[in-house]
Every structure is written in structure tokens, then in C-alpha cells.
Amino acid sequence: MADAPEKKPSLPADYVPPKVWSWESPSGGAFASINRPIAGATHDKVLPVGQQPLQLYSLGTPNGQKVTILLEELLAAGHAGAEYDAWYIDILEGDQFGSGFTELNPNSKIPALLDRSNPEKPQRVFESGAILLYLAEKFGAFLPEDPAARTEALNWLFWQMGSAPFLGGGFGHFYAYAPVKIEYAIDRYAMEAKRQYDVLDRHFAEHRFAAGNEYSIADMAIFPWYGAVALGQAYGDAATFLATKDYKHFNRWVEEVGSRPAVKRGRRVNRKKENDPSFIRERHSAADLD
Ligand SMILES: N[C@@H](CCC(=O)N[C@@H](CS)C(=O)NCC(=O)O)C(=O)O
Q1: How many helices (H) and strands (E) in the chain?
Q2: CATH number of the domain to which 221 belongs
Q3: Is the CB of 105 under 6 A from ligand 1?
Q4: CATH number at residue 274
Q5: Per residue in 245-272, pLDDT tens?
Q6: Interatomic CA distance for residues 222 and 278, integer angstroms
Q7: Which of 101, 182, 274, 275 is the most buried (most CB within 10 A)?
Q8: Is 62 domain-assigned?
Q9: What is the number of structural domains in the chain?
Q10: What pLDDT score was predicted for residue 206?
Q11: For ligand 1, is residue 196 a contact (CB within 6 Å)?
């Protein structure tokens, strides 16, 4: 005879999951106002289009910063075709559910890019990792040519895409944003976040950059997430809680990548001036950041 199922406590104490989940009340916590269980546009809204070949619709969150860092690196390296207009998508106001945005990204999340370099054939690109790869291939930059190093860059790029949701959506959410502090959830994701920092620390003990000797889009993807938390720029006092100072090889890499002028410029785009006077809400030419 099978054992009787273990009776587990609930939070709230009287909660029993129904047979079929339904959307009855907002989940609470930060971002509850934009969470929905359905995809698609909620309203008609045409996206603005500027003069530059690349139109970026984004916000200066870590996922948004990855792309503006690469664009600033490309421009600093002399790729004039990487000039871009960066438009502010206010995700707390639901801009990502406008019809124009969902045409570019049916997943309704920033960043989304429209490459209008060939106006006859504009190309949409969504998912930050896909945008980094698209731009690196388009300009032949920041992705090593050597097949082994290129593969390493892609290993770490896709590692970041798969891992950061545990750092942000898992650890960051339950540590800083959830409406209730749940020890089980915080422990589970702190454990995973620390494991990921250790993965990075061990890698950077032996490699200057993610792909080896060459700085690449993999570094640009990892830095805004793992660097920002370690620099005390995300999730309250998460850097202390996770003791990120202990990852010394990782911190050496943070110092090197974070001091690059293009990284500093890219991290200022699509952010509110109220939070820091060096931030800019939109970017339409280099002068906006100079
Ligand atoms: N895997 C996606 C994740 C993008 C993402 O989660 N974007 C967030 C901001 S960082 C967003 O737009 N959230 C709006 C929403 O969930 O409605 C990527 O890397 O591009």
C-alpha cells in the first residue's frame, strides 16, 4: 500500500492549490501590475522611428544594458553602422503590450531591435542573447573568429541566458520583491545564485574573459547581471547577503569589464534621470551621452 501523501504547510496557512489554476487576484509584490497569464497586445500603439539604422526599444535593466553596451562598444570600435535610436519602453506602464511592440517581440519583453539598415527589408530581433549574436555577426566584432574561442563565447552567452533568470527571477524576486519573505524560496535561490558565482569565480581564476583572452558579447551579457549585484546595484543588500566579495577572481573581472568606457556609457541608456543625473531616457546620437 502506498504511503499517505505527506501533509505540507501552506502559505497562507489555509491555501490548497485548486485542481485548475485561474487568474483571480494579482499575485502581489513588485511587478504584480504587469503580470498576466496571456500573451498578445492589450492596446494599439505605433512605435516611434528615428533617423538611425538601428531602432532599439528597451529599458536600462540588465537585459537592456547588454545591448546598449554592445552598441557603444561597436561605435567606440569605429562601426558607424551601429548608430542607434534607443526608445524608452516603460514596462511598468505596459508599453511592452502595445501592438507595435508585440509585432517586434511577441514575448512582450524588452529589449527588441529593428534593424532598418536596409529599409526595404527591416529585420526584427528579440531576446537579448539573439540581439547580441545578430549584431556581433553583422559587424564581425566581439565574437572570436577562432572556432574554439567562438564556441566558448557562445557557451558563456547561453550560460548567462539560462542562468540569470535564477539570479533575478528566482533569488532577486524572493529576496527583494516578493510580498512575503519565504525562507525556503530565499534559501533555494541563494544557494543557486552562490553556485553560479562560484562557477564564474573558478572560470575567471583561469581566464581573463569569458571566452578566454578575447573580450566578447559573453562578457557583455554576464556583466549587467552578475556584476551589478556584486557592485551593490541590485536587490538591496544582496551583495552582502551573498558575500560576493569572496569571489575574488570574479571581482577582478568585474573591475576590468566595468571600467571600460563603452560599458559605462551603455549602462546609462534608457534609464530615469531622477535616479542618477548621468542617466538618459532616450538616446538618438552620441551627443546624448557625451
Ligand atoms: N529572455 C529575455 C528576458 C527579457 C526580460 O525579462 N525583460 C524584462 C525586463 S528585464 C521585461 O521586459 N519585462 C516586462 C514584462 O515581463 O512584462 C531577454 O533576455 O531578452
Answers
A1: 10, 4
A2: 1.20.1050.10
A3: no
A4: 3.40.30.10
A5: 999 999 999 999 999 999 999 999 999 9
A6: 23
A7: 101
A8: yes
A9: 2
A10: 98
A11: no
